[in-house]
Model the fold of this input.
Amino acid sequence: MTSTKKERSVVVIELQGGNDALNTVIPYNNPLYYDFRNNVGIPEGDVLHLDGEVGFNPSLAPMKHLWDQGKIGIINGIGYPNPNRSHFRSRDVWYTAESEKIGAEGWLGAAIRDLDARGENVLTGVNFGRGLPRALVCKGVPVASVANLETYGLMPDIQDEKSRQYALEAFSRIYGPTESKDIVAQVLSETGSNALKGADRLRSAPEVYSSTVEYADTPISQSLRNMAQVMSADLGTRIYYTMHGSFDTHSNELPAHHKLWTDVSTAISDFTSDLDEHGMLDDTLILVFSEFGRRIKDNGTGTDHGSGGVAFVIGGSVNGGLYAEYPSLRPEDHSEGDLHFTNDFRSTYATILNRWLELDPIPIVHGDYEQFAFL
Done:
């Protein structure tokens, strides 16, 4: 894709554990909400009104200004057919965009493959955290995974620079290409070689970064700060991923949910301010999602696994507003105490892939899904 404009980026923030959608975007004008949420309902006077029907949980106050500026799109009732309340299975569905079978590749991994079809940049996708989410996994697609950018690198624990250099040279020889290696060894060689190249380039990111924004000392804030550093270094990274949680609020929900969302909303507010300062906000799209919502009725001090949830798209180029129908709370409209989903999450994926990354979404999301107008 040839263009004189800046390459667009996607930042994905996964809220692990099943975020309570009803206590995030609150239907404060619906008396059924308070009937079902006797113990964990948010008082109407505390809700940050978005319109005459719904409002933000007060812990989202740090990013309310983004809504006021038209930079947040809220996808109500997001989910998929035949919902699964297992964290593992539901996350896998979101990761692979396959709801009826076990998917072979992650939707973002497939996007990275299409963005860099010739495999020229080992940093097209970067995960900020430990391990590698299935969303980023795709055969033949390298993705760097960074726990802490300040200390990232190969063999950073070797303090003596000469010893480290010897070790890196040995690493390079071990993982260098050679025709005599079998297929498995060749794959390992490519993985090791990519790690070596990626580590060297990522280590340079903090050195070229400066900002007036002071991020909070929380894991999610530091992950987003790391992303801003990589973006500023212009390393060709297009896909950024991180997780925060756990939002599995079966008990003690009010203080736990408040702390979780205060951390996330503060991090997003600082991150978008940082991007704006560096002229990158219009070219960055942030997707915030969770694997499912929670039951309509509280269990006393918390809420149990449900289905329909809420997602956010945030950025300088987003057409802010409410998208999709808010799920009904009427008892006759839901079964087993779940919010029914009103739109398939693959519609949101397809919109991002097609309208933002300019990719064909059909093979990635495994179907032709209606797209939203948030872009």
User: Anything to note?
Assistant: The chain has a mean pLDDT of 88. The chain is about 30% helix and 15% strand. The domain at 9-152+203-365 is CATH 3.40.720 (Alkaline Phosphatase, subunit A).
